[in-house]
Amino acid sequence: MKKYFGIFVLGLSVALPGCKPKEEAPAAAPVHKVDITPNPAYTPTLHVALPDSCPVPDGMTVEESTGKIFLNVPNFAPSNPDGTRQHPALLCVFDKTGKFDVLMEYAPHPESGKMGPMGLDFGPDGNLYVADNQFFSTDPTGKFASRILRVEMKDGKPTGKVDTVVTGLRLANAILIRDGWVYVSDTNVDTKDSPGKFGLGIIWRFPLDLLVNAAAEPLTVDPTVKDGKAVDQYAWVVGETKQIGRGDNSSFDGLTWAWGALYSGNFGDGVMYRIETNEDGTANVATILNDDQLHCCDGIFYDDKTDKIYINDSQANAIRTLARSENGEHVSGWLWVNDDTNGENGLLDQPAECVVVDGVLYVVNFDWSFPGLKNTTSTDKPYSISAIQIGTKSDAELEAEGKAQAEAAAPAEEAKTEEAAAPAEEVKAEEAAAPAEEAKTEEAAAPAEEAKAEEAAAPAEEVKAEEAAAPAEEVKAEEAAAPAEEVKAEEAAAPAEEVKAEEAAASAE
Ligand SMILES: [Ca+2]
Ligand SMILES: [Ca+2]
Ligand SMILES: [Ca+2]
Fold first, then answer.
1. Is 201 within 8 Å of 194 (Cβ atoms)?
2. Which CATH topology does 2-392 take?
3. pLDDT by residue (tens digit) across 20-65?
4. How far away, in angstroms, is 332 Cα from ligand 3 center?
5. From CA 283, how far away is CA 162, in angstroms rounded?
6. Which-ligand-closest: CA of 172?
7. What is the CA(273)–ligand 3 centre distance, in A?
8. What is the Cβ-side half-sphere exposure of residue 109, based on CA atoms within 13 angstroms?
9. How far apart are CA 390 and CA 150, in angstroms?
10. Which residues is 318 bridged to in the sheet?
11. Which of 173, 247, 248, 415 is 20 to 30 A away from residue 431, measured at CA?
């Protein structure tokens, strides 16, 4: 396994697509191994220090017309001794300047008395559709009542009208509305009817019309999975989670649309999938990432400018990337990783979701720790939204620019080097001559030589400065060129046959 991983020029990316599933990992052994050296250019900064009312933020979505980012804050923690939560769930908004507002306090679920708004997305009707995760508040009888809510919006603000449009989900997590369909990830489905399965999840797929026009009575679904097969007509994909690392059986989590298909990944084992739609509406699932480094996939987001999916690795305090070559091979890389932190200065503190607006990746830090995560201290301040400058260019565009810069810079650098070299040689010649002159002259000559030496010293320092500057510029050009070259190297490294084999295996399931 290890042989597939190579550290490239910047130490940022690894080629993964051909890796086979890990056979068996020791249970409950946290894996934090991350073979990268973070690039300082992607150091996160603190974009919003959230107010005291927002210790556990989660889902985000961008309002395309304004660039505003809507944020759900479920506040699953901290709890009071009697089990009630210290803070109500909130709908908030912030923008690229860091301006932050609380828009609404969610009413608690009528039966559980709690509320867990996670993923959210705008429908074509301008309203927000919200995944309400009741998994942490379901009653002991096993009745699960996670929901999809419609939050009526007007002029960028909630009107106060909130309708339940679907109920009966287990752990409603991410939601994505696209081309007349509403996709919802259900991260933890009961395994009792599927002997031998460690973890199960569902991706639900509802006709948008059904939800937009939902009457007073919500649609009630059944998340039962029997022997690996879902019983409900709207349960589009059933996924499995393998038992590895920290022993988390959570399944489908983040959802994004990229390269003509739906993408999702498992929170418990980090396996990722590309899901195409067959002509008859059924799902065609391909496993695209299944390696020994990514053990956690929370929220994911495709940015069309950089042409990459950004993956929140909650376990490793990391952001991973997924690119796709023209021939359809997926290439995994790392954007950033940091150690356990409280989130100070914007360092990642259990990243859960991200979105991109104008070349900036905004990351929400969930900071509610589970066993095996790098984040060991929950809800430590600051409660944070981080920002990472990723730019607006794809690797292909950067490669072209880097080459052009390197070509333009080359003649100029040579000229500088020549100019710089000349004074240095003169200095040497003068220094060599000095003893001879000193021998000829006596005390009177000494000050003159000192003066010469000083004059000579000045250009020498300039030369040093120039010499120091020149490599730096060259390095810049190389850095610009590097990402694209890395992609090529990774594409070459990806064993295409293994990818095919995995895809075939996934389809067979
Ligand atoms: Ca999530
Ligand atoms: Ca924190
Ligand atoms: Ca923390």
1. no
2. Neuraminidase (2.120.10)
3. 333 333 334 444 455 678 899 999 999 999 999 999 999 999 999 9
4. 26
5. 31
6. 1
7. 29
8. 25
9. 32
10. 313, 337
11. 415
